[in-house]
Amino acid sequence: MNGATAFAFGIAALVAAVAAFTVAARATFAATIGFTAYGLLLSLIWVGLAAVDVALAEAAIGGGLTGVLLLGTATRLQPIDAAAERPGPALRGLAAVLSAAVAAGLAAAVLSLPDPAPTLAPAAAEHLTATGVGNPVTAVLMAYRATDTLLEKVVLVLALAGVWSLARDDMWGARPGPRYRADPKGALAFLARLLPPVGIVVGVFILWVSADEPGGAFQGATIIAAMWQLSVMAGLADEPALGRGWLRLLLTIGPLTFLAVGLGGLWLGAAFLAYPPAFAKPLILVIEFAMLATVAATLALLMAGPPQRRSDP
Amino acid sequence: MGGALDLFTIAAVSLGALFFLAGTVGLLRFPDTLSRLHALTKADNVGLALVVIGLLPRVEGPLDALKLVAIWLLVLLSGSTLSQLVAAVARDEVPPE
User: Fold this and answer.
1) Are A223 and A199 within 8 A, CB to CB?
2) Chain B residue with minimal CA distance to A190?
3) Confidence of residue A210 (pLDDT cuts 50, 70, 90)
4) Burial class (CB within 10 angstroms; exposed 0-12, middle 13-18, buried 19+) of A108
5) Stated pTM of the model
6) Which pLDDT does position B94 carry in this prediction?
7) At A130, is the pLDDT very low, low, confident or very high (cuts 50, 70, 90)?
8) Is B34's Cβ below 8 Å from some Cβ in A?
9) What is residue A80's predicted lDDT score, i.e. its pLDDT?
10) Is A191 within 8 Å of B78 when comparing Cβ atoms?
11) From the candidates A188, A213, A233, which should be mutated to test the interface with B, based on the most B CB atoms within 10 A?
């Protein structure tokens, strides 16, 4: 067994152990931290499988964003958690058996794939030059399967509308989340002044470089959303009122640009979302930057929650 | 030349891993939150610095070397800020009976 195989086995065992801890933890807070660690270890596994774009997405969204959402939920559930009744041993046994059955089914399916497994990778690589990008993942996301990416972005907006629907009737269009106040000379304010410029540059860079290297609009947007959330939590910025016109434009500009390019392809070209080969890369860039703005705003507002206050208390 | 650099990388990364191990032992064995934070931040930062120094001979250009150092600096910044925040909360907590 060489070093790489030993390393793979080690990481797999570690992931299984962290997953077991997450399930077995009594306190929701501990389980959330375990889940975040699990997400980070999974992104290491993705790197080991040479899927760096997926690893970036896993680290940013699975580890970071979901962790923040779960922590907020755990905090809000704290008064209820103590009094909640735990499910009985029969129910937990049934859940364990069903989870194990699903995992066994997935393992059987993966292990029974023919060797070499059927793949479209050569076909995707063959037409890469026509799409204008060098990264095959970006080509799949933005050219071959652009419809799926467009629908994803629409789903994001719908998810945000779902979160907003939890607001009280008279609070529709108000500001989300509490007004955070932190010591302006403290550590958090210091970090919130120092990190966002770096984070914004890194986020835009990850988008820009996704044309030829691993990266992506979603990953970059998550980082930018995190920078905004950091500034809000340090009290250096306040969430905008959700009824503002410019905010709603920002939230829809991504899918709208995508849709406009798609309809342009239908009208001027061969099919919906067909890019003329000469303009493929510029069009993809325009769509990706619009998507960056929308996804960053959407993720930041998803973290903030439903609207609950009118202005500074 | 190549062999000496490889040896340097192995030595530096192993030393860094040793520091990470020491930090984890401190996390598990120290009595209270404040000293555990101390073990985590100091030992882990030095460990990461040694890993970065060990990887520097293997980069393909000055830009990649700068990226590695920037990663270390970012970890330093976020780690120290977060430990300050956790320590502030821990200091005000009532110690468990």
Assistant:
1) yes
2) B81
3) confident
4) exposed
5) 0.88
6) 55
7) confident
8) no
9) 79
10) yes
11) A188
Share of chain B above pLDDT 70, in %: 94
Contacts of A68 (CB under 8 A, 6+ apart): A226, A229, A303
- Among B27, B74, B81, B83, pick the best mutation site for testing chain A contact (most A Cβ within 10 A): B81
ipTM surpasses cut 0.90:
no
Q: Reduce the secondary structure of chain A to three states and give it as a string.
A: CCHHHHHHHHHHHHHHHHHHHHHHCCCHHHHHHHHHHHHHHHHHHHHHCCCHHHHHHHHHHHHHHHHHHHHHHHHHHHHHHCCCCCCCHHHHHHHHHHHHHHHHHHHHHHHCCCCCCCCCHHHHHHCHHHHCCCCHHHHHHHHHCHHHHHHHHHHHHHHHHHHHCCCCHHHCCCEECCCCCCCCCCHHHHHHHHHHHHHHHHHHHHHHHCCCCCCCHHHHHHHHHHHHHHHHHCCCCCCCCCCCHHHHHHHHHHHHHHHHHHHHHHHHCCCCCCCCHHHHHHHHHHHHHHHHHHHHHHHHHHHHCCEEECCCC
Query: Of A266, A258, A248, whose CA–CA distance to A286 is shortest?
Result: A258
Put simply, the answer to whether B77 touches A188 (Cβ < 8 Å) is no
Q: Is B95 helix (H, G, I), strand (E, B) or coil?
A: coil
How far apart are the C-alpha atoms of A127 and A122, rounded to whole Å? 9
